[in-house]
Amino acid sequence: MHGGGVLLSVCATACAAVIGVRQARKETREAREARESVWRAPTPGAGAAGGRAVFGAVALLALVPFLLVTLSHGYGAESRISAVPFREILDASAHADLDLSDVRAVNLVGNVLLLVPFGAAAAFLWSGRRRVLKTALVGAVFSLIVEVAQYVLSLGRVSSVDDVLLNTAGAALGAFLVRRWTGRTRARRLTLPRPSRAGGRT
Q1: Do residues 174 and 118 lie in contact, with contact meaning Cβ atoms separated by under 8 Å?
Q2: At the N or C end, where does the chain have fewer CB atoms within 10 A?
Q3: Chain CA centroid to CA 145, Å
Q4: What angle do CA 47, 53, 54 make, to 5 degrees?
């Protein structure tokens, strides 16, 4: 994996964050206006469905950098499989001179970052405390499919179980950040003063 893929992933993360913030603010504003209006009943179902559609599209868009990087031809003469968990991670971490200019460091960090935007967008598709787990599972399945495709298509890459673990961690990280952000947003919303029927603040 090369640095260009990491850059694409960072750009996708920024796009997902901007779209997510705008959509969340829109839904919050619509819900507040519906609650404050005496003439219009709140319709949270329609807003939630629209939001899920938006984030579903963002999640698919966030997979583009991941596919561009992982399904491109590697530098090896032939594809091979690394089925021992944590072997490549521990091998890269064992080098004291490891830095971001090292290819192994780029692989470790990049494999995490590539699925962060997907995890952040996909987390909005589910509600509840298990959104991180669900997103991580989807990310793991998708990453596993890609690793198998790398080997079947003979792309000259290493189909590694560590890549699946790192990709899964990236998807989980994106979902975790979204859960923390939405939790704080919900807490602030609950503490806002609500308008009384007389038009004043309670």
Answers
A1: yes
A2: C
A3: 17
A4: 90
